[in-house]
Design brief:
Blueprint (H helix, E strand, L loop, with lengths): L1 E2 L2 E5 L2 E6 L2 E2 L5 E6 L5 H8 L17 E4 L10 H6 L5 H10 L15 H12 L6 E5 L7 H18 L2 E5 L3 H7 L2 E6 L2 E7 H6 L4 H9 L3
Parallel strand pairs: 5-8, 5-9, 6-7, 7-8
Antiparallel strand pairs: 1-4, 2-3, 9-10
């Protein structure tokens, strides 16, 4: 799936200036970079939440699923929150079990913890299929066991549906565990991209190398 040239300017500050690039379908592409590198801005533009300077983005014919950094809950039960995005009870039961949410089915969603809310939001999103799935730090609020369960679910969803997954993450280890490819952003620019292990083990740019060294890679 081709992403067109993307740039974004707020006032006099350009926060994104990216050339066209590919997000392969049937694969997970992780986007890494320091705070302020433009990761979340890119996610919002591709999800149609914000417009790029060019007023262009992903083709409107492409179905897009988007999970923002801050998960939200409606004032209803966990079950009803999830079923807002589809009524397939078999799919619902599968997701509840995979994310260990079964015991919270009737629980008021507004009273869930941060990690539980994130799991509920992920389950709600995965109730239907998309050609492009954009996940912005989906496991940041989750504990280790929940993170691993969510990663397995994301991996399975990508394989089963053949969608392209764009995963915004601060966790290099998470990228290593589940991403087929990586993109590294620095100050709004696409510095480097490639297969995950190749980029992590043999970065070609100094900016990428310093970033990875900071995280002990």
């Amino acid at each position: 799936m081709k992403v067109p040239t993307v740039s974004k300017t707020y006032g006099i500050r350009k926060v994104l200036d990216l050339p066209a690039f590919e997000i392969p379908e049937g694969q997970i592409t992780a986007v890494a970079g320091s705070n302020g590198s433009g990761k979340s801005c890119l996610a919002k533009i591709l999800a149609g939440i914000e417009l790029s300077d060019q007023k262009t983005g992903i083709s409107p014919d492409i179905t897009v699923g988007y999970m923002p950094q801050k998960s939200y809950a409606f004032r209803m039960s966990t079950e009803r929150n999830i079923l807002l995005n589809g009524g397939d009870k078999n799919r619902f039961a599968y997701l509840m079990k995979a994310l260990n949410l079964e015991h919270l089915c009737r629980h008021p969603a507004k009273k869930l913890s941060g990690g539980e809310t994130a799991k509920m939001a992920l389950a709600r999103l995965l109730m239907r299929s998309y050609r492009l799935l954009i996940l912005d730090e989906p496991t940041a609020a989750m504990d280790m066991e929940s993170t691993l369960a969510a990663e397995e679910l994301i991996r399975s969803f990508c394989k089963e549906t053949g969608c392209a997954v764009l995963l915004i993450t601060h966790s290099i280890q998470q990228a290593r565990r589940i991403a087929d490819r990586m993109i590294y952003l620095h100050e709004g620019c696409l510095i480097e991209q490639g297969e995950t292990e190749q980029l992590l083990n043999n970065p070609s740019k100094d900016e990428t190398r310093r970033f990875l060294e900071f995280y002990g890679v």
